[in-house]
Amino acid sequence: xxxxxxxxxxxxxxxxxxxxxxxxxxxxxxxxxxxxxxxxxxxxxxxxxxxxxxxxxxxxxxxxxxxxxxxxxxxxxxxxxxxxxxxxxxxxxxxxxxxxxxxxxxxxxxxxxxxxxxxxxxxxxxxxxxxxxxxxxxxxxxxxxxxxxxxxxxxxxxxxxxxxxxxxxxxxxxxxxxxxxxxxxxxxxxxxxxxxxxxxxxxxxxxxxxxxxxxxxxxxxxxxxxxxxxxxxxxxxxxxxxxxxxxxxxxxxxxxxxxxxxxxxxxxxxxxxxxxxxxxxxxxxxxxxxxxxxxxxxxxxxxxxxxxxxxxxxxxxxxxxxxxxxxxxxxxxxxxxxxxxxxxxxxxxxxxxx
Amino acid sequence: xxxxxxxxxxxxxxxxxxxxxxxxxxxxxxxxxxxxxxxxxxxxxxxxxxxxxxxxxxxxxxxxxxxxxxxxxxxxxxxxxxxxxxxxxxxxxxxxxxxxxxxxxxxxxxxxxxxxxxxxxxxxxxxxxxxxxxxxxxxxxxxxxxxxxxxxxxxxxxxxxxxxxxxxxxxxxxxxxxxxxxxxxxxxxxxxxxxxxxxxxxxxxxxxxxxxxxxxxxxxxxxxxxxxxxxxxxxxxxxxxxxxxxxxxxxxxxxxxxxxxxxxxxxxxxxxxxxxxxxxxxxx
Lengths: 354, 284
What we know:
Largest sheet of chain A: 6 strands, mixed
Largest interface: A-B, 29 and 54 residues
Number of strands of chain B: 0
Strand content of chain B: under 5%
Helix content of chain B: over 70%
Helix content of chain A: 40-55%
Strand content of chain A: 5-15%
Radius of gyration of chain A: 47 Å
Oligomer: heterodimer
Shape of chain A: flat
Distance between the termini of chain A: 62 Å
Distance between the termini of chain B: 98 Å
């Protein structure tokens, strides 16, 4: 027996209604956040470049967002003409001789716009007025004449300090610049002295390495004589060694007649013994690899079993889920039911042609 | 406010509970359909006894859920299998039962019953009866109509009767069916292949070999994509015959060899002997 809702349409309608209300509230919240209902005043400015500038770049004044860039374009003189809006609440900050400072964060490559207020108290700017940026000559004049003051930028300060540090590091004779530079100065002097000592040591070592150098002193002559003596001793020792080796080979050959036979068959060992040896070594390597594979496969058996069991469980779960989805009253109308299968007929084909 | 909250909670609980609902009918129907499909596969593999048992299982399941159209389809298939196995007693019993059921409750399946009678008469060589039965075209199901028309065309060819509108209607139906086939919406593409084959057979008998070859080629393409090997064998056999008549001996030999290969695989002794006969007639 099929289960059916009596008021399906009303319940669905209720859900749709709730969804619509949530949608409207969300839209309103977003619009309020975007300050769509706040009155705005448009002003113009000009920049040298548009690096890091976007339509959503905000204008800050002492940490407050007082407006944002509306649009910007490249003009005929290769400057960037930009329109920006100022929110109604901060309109009283727009005084005469104000300017915009554009700074680029060297890490994020994004622009920040800072509103630099003109002398306060002063005359309020009218909507649509031009507010110069510090990039342009007009802005620079304002800064030079002291009508506006530019606040310190943290990143710029850090960069200046790094610059100073690098400058000091590239200079010599500056132990008075602090402990690090004094240490570096002393280290540099010590390394100079060490260099001289090393040259002398190098000369001494060169004399030791040379042969027949009686002009270098008695010690070097004695060393040279000792070297000649050891050379003679080495030659004698080699001859004794050869003699002993020959006698050992002879006794070994008599001890191991199989070895003799092998030498008779393949005296050099290149044609039969060595290839066979190599083959056996390769087979041995392969066997160890095969063994590793077999051990690995054996170790993976529980994993495979667990994968199979998990796969089975997943299939069962998905079957139940799909059954649930199929039986859902909201979907059931949308899925076509199975029909009895119509079997194919015989379709007898004659082949006898007259 | 609380009232509405309760309403929403109750609605959610009811929706959740409904997902536990179980449909035994659909499950049983699905099982029966699978049995019917398996039966058909067994039939194609010439395992008629196994096919009969499988159709019987399908019939039992359709009966349990009282699915009349499925029951009638299974009964038609059972009748067909009993006839193939030569069990005429059971064939007559099932055929009578399915006739009663269709006449009383399922008139839309009259064409299917008609096709069964046509098949039996065609096998018995009773071509006049086939022509008569094929004119009883009840429903708007042009697929069944196409099959009946194909049987009529072949029967008239066999009886040397003048073919009237059959080839025209067949070509019209082929155009409809091939559109469906191209969109993969044709349930049983063998109907289209059979229509092409019957036209190929008709034109071969008319000695219009070019036309015949074109139709047989189309039938061959469909049979190949559907992997109906015995039908492929029939296609290549007739194509070989046409090659032979055109004196293209090597091509004819190749076609016959392909038919022979299929006959050996499907253990069709009749096909093997027929092909061997033709191969022996070919000049060396």
